[in-house]
Write a structure and sequence with these properties.
Helices cover about 30% and strands about 30% of the residues. By secondary structure, the chain is an alpha+beta fold. Strands 1-3-4-2-5-7-8-6-9 form a 9-stranded mixed beta barrel, surrounded by 4 helices. The longest helix has 21 residues. The protein is globular. The two termini are about 30 Å apart.
Length: about 260
């Protein structure tokens, strides 16, 4: 079976999220632009070997999450809800700074507690592989939304990827969000979780963001309100924002147990 890519075009790709989060950072308004999160988005294509999901969850719980928590790094796990196989597992890791990201990458090879806790996972033989491959997307948070803000009590998450035809078009779309569009999101009930420029990964030049709602009814109403907002209507007609998005992909995620 051909391996599926990170985000599927159109339709609903439902997923479940079991979020093991580290304490929330300060609000975006109190953070300097130099403190923007670096967000790593991983997509694990799990193998069909027995207990592959259990093995990787054990690795996250016993090794990776404690390692990240000591470094003030946020971790969120998303499980695809569909019955398609092989299973796809989504992971988001938010590093407070770029230097934290690089120090974590170095420490993964040297931290004795992590190495001991992850020994079984790291020594898994190929015949019992946990996953076929995983994809990584590295994101730089936007200036006007510099930290991940995962809301509590929301029942539906929507991930959107905006591709651009050129680097300049991508730069102008990010400027549109930073200067005007994020404010309209907040005004119309679209709750952002993060906005990030993809600095390494597929689909470049592109940006990726996540928003949260209570349910699909609220989601549809909020987007309808957004599309009719006079500030959005005026904004989208500005020549500096013309032809900034060449393709949109999306995926819907549901909280575990919904």
């Amino acid at each position: 079976m051909k391996r599926r890519s990170f985000i599927k075009n159109s339709a609903i790709a439902a997923g479940a999220i079991s979020a093991t989060s580290i304490p929330v950072f300060a609000s975006a308004s109190t953070i300097q632009v130099t403190d923007k999160n670096i967000i790593e988005w991983r997509v694990y294509h799990l193998s069909r070997t027995p207990n592959s999901r259990d093995r990787i969850n054990q690795y996250f719980t016993e090794a990776l999450i404690p390692f990240l928590k000591k470094r003030n790094v946020q971790f969120f796990q998303f499980n695809e809800y569909s019955k398609n196989e092989p299973v796809v597992l989504y992971v988001m890791v938010a590093y407070p700074t770029i230097s934290t990201y690089f120090s974590c990458m170095k420490d993964l090879d040297n931290d004795t507690e992590y190495l001991e806790a992850s020994k079984n996972y790291r020594n898994t033989p190929a015949s019992q592989a946990t996953y076929g491959r995983y994809e990584t997307f590295l994101l730089e948070a936007f200036d006007n939304f510099p930290v991940v803000k995962m809301p509590s009590g929301k029942g539906l998450f929507e991930m959107r990827l905006y591709e651009s035809a050129t680097e300049d078009a991508g730069r102008r779309k990010i400027a549109m969000f930073n200067k005007e569009e994020i404010a309209v999101f907040l005004k119309t009930g679209i709750n952002p979780v993060f906005f990030g420029k993809i600095i390494a990964g597929q689909y470049m030049p592109a940006l990726l963001y996540m928003v949260a709602f209570n349910d699909m009814t609220e989601r549809d109403a909020s987007w309808a309100k957004f599309s009719q907002d006079p500030d959005w209507i005026a904004m989208r007609e500005k020549p500096e924002y013309a032809d900034t998005v060449s393709n949109i992909q999306r995926v819907f995620l549901l909280p575990e147990g919904a």
